[in-house]
Amino acid sequence: MPVFTIAIHGGAGTILKQDMTDEKELLYRQGLSDALDAGYNVLQKGGTSADAVRAAVCSLEDNILFNAGRGSVFGKDGHQEMDASIMDGSNLMAGAVAAVRNVRNPVELAYAIMTKSPHVMMTGSGALDFAKLHGISVEADEYFYSDFRYQQWKQMQGSDEAALDHNVKVSDDKKFGTVGAVALDINGNLAAATSTGGMTNKQFGRVGDSPIIGAGTYANNNTCAISCTGHGEPFIRAVTAYDVSCLMEYKGLSLREAMAVVVHDKLIRLDGEGGMIGADASGNVEMQFNSDGMYRGMRASDERSEVAIYK
Ligand code: ASP
How far is the CA of 174 from the centre of ligand 1 (A)? Predict the structure, then answer.
């Protein structure tokens, strides 16, 4: 029986045990487990890796704890603009959306762009029009509101700074996380997806790495599926996800070796804080980061399973 596997992340950054209450940690762990189950159930029924990463990412987008979909951070203008992407490693098809508002599950919109349009990427109001045309769920602003996110943004509103969700503190509370998933299905196909609200107080239509194919997301059956999280700008400049694939394809490195080069060397040299998850066609899973922590988890048909937060 071929092995199938799924891995997810809920963001990386300054995630420290001392900033977390037991109660909150439990909620995060539950959120990660629920998302893993959602993806794993698809794979167990013989579903595709693309459907599995969609299911896992939708679960995280619906969870207000994570910076994607419902829990997206506020931009400088007080709006929440979301980015997402998905890639199918079996045919190198990809879909991405940037700076879109009010879409409940941006990963579903990215998937619709991949499967129902001749394009790879759509942005802003045009992307919203496309979503409505294809019956993708849209929600009012209130759906995306949480007092925590609002306070987080208020703290930065006067400045021109933008901050990684993970690194903005509000009183004794902290919430983290761009989300992503990678999967290998029973037919040996790989897929990856990433979704985010971006950085708190972002402005000028800033878009990070998450919807950029090759930077935040990449999948290729010959190498690996990768989803990244962290400070988007260095991740874009390092073409991070594709670089892992290239190191495997052109240099013959293993997934673990390739990811280590990118996360612990190349990104560090660009001041790129964050991490990534990856899977390869043999069912290996890697979850590496150069920050204090990364919300993460994996489950495989050969009984491997893990949910972790700190280093
Ligand atoms: N990579 C995302 C961005 O820069 C942020 C994150 O991973 O939390 O938009």
Answer: 16
Task: Provide φ and ψ at 17, rounded to 5°.
Answer: -55, -40
Where b means 16+ CB within 10 Å and e means fewer, 237-254 reads: ebbbbbbbbbbbeeeebe
Residue 21: how many CB atoms within 10 A of its CB?
10
Which ligand 1 atom sits closest to the C-alpha of 274?
A: 7
* Secondary structure class of 142 (helix, strand, coil): helix
Structural domain boundaries of the chain? 5-310
- One digit per residue, the tens of pLDDT, for the chain of length 311 reads 789 999 999 999 888 899 889 999 999 999 999 999 999 999 999 999 999 999 999 999 999 999 999 999 999 888 999 999 999 999 999 999 999 999 999 999 999 999 999 999 999 999 999 999 999 999 999 999 888 888 888 888 777 777 766 665 543 333 458 999 999 999 999 999 999 999 988 999 999 999 999 999 999 999 999 999 999 999 999 999 999 999 999 999 999 999 999 999 999 999 999 999 999 999 999 999 999 999 999 999 999 999 999 99
CA of 60 to the centre of ligand 1 (A): 15
**pTM of the shown model:** 0.94
User: Distance between alpha carbon 119 and the CA centroid of its chain, in Å?
Assistant: 21
Task: Let me know if 196 is a catalytic residue.
Answer: no
* Residues whose CB is less than 8 angstroms from the CB of residue 117 and which lie 6 or more positions away in sequence, other chains included: 95, 130
| CATH pick for 5-310 out of 3.40.50.1100, 3.30.460.80, 3.60.20.30, 3.30.420.10 | 3.60.20.30
Q: What single string gives the DSSP state of each residue in 23-81?
A: HHHHHHHHHHHHHHHHHHHHHHTT--HHHHHHHHHHHHHT-TTSSSGGGPPP-TTS---
H or E element in which residue 82 lies: strand 82-88
Which one is catalytic: 5, 48, 178, 240? 178
Whole-number Å distance, alpha carbon 228 to ligand 1 midpoint, is 8
